Amino acid sequence: MNASTEEQPSSSFDAVKWGVIFLLLAGAVAGNYVYGEESVLIRAVAVVAMVGIAGLIALQTEKGRNAAIFAKEARTEVRKVVWPTRQEAVQTTGIVLVVTLLMSLLLWGLDSVLFWLVGLVTGMQV
Asked: What is the DSSP letter of 38?
């Protein structure tokens, strides 16, 4: 098995870090509630700061490092994508709208015919 795919044992200190992260996020929620009379700006800055600190601590854990590596690789893959031109996007959107309209008309007609048939068979006309 490849060394990069093998399960790496996480340090026991990671559990402590996750506990601190949980306490920070719970403190942000509780502090926002307790200091509800304070300015919204001050509370928002405090919550963003606590979430940022929790994020930085999370990046120091094994799962956090793996998430950061995944995000970097995803960004690299997004750069490789060949995006459609404006004309291609408009044409594709038009095709989707026309097909959607045609299918909705087809289903409406089918529903009307089936509704009429059920009314004919049951003798209940609405």
From this structure: S
Burial class (CB in 10 A: 0-12, 13-18, 19+), 20: middle
Residue that is written with structure tokens 């060949």 in the block = 82
Q: What are phi and psi of 55, to 5 degrees?
A: -65, -40
- Residue whose C-alpha is closest to residue 45's, from 57, 55, 34, 31: 31
Q: What would the pLDDT profile of 12-71 be if each residue is shown by its tens digit?
A: 789 999 999 999 999 999 999 999 898 999 999 999 999 999 999 999 999 999 999 999
- Answer whether residue 4 shows pLDDT above 80: no
Domain boundaries, the chain: 13-80, 84-126
Q: Nearest 5 degrees, angle CA 12-CA 57-CA 52?
A: 160
The single residue listed with the structure tokens 């340090």 is 11
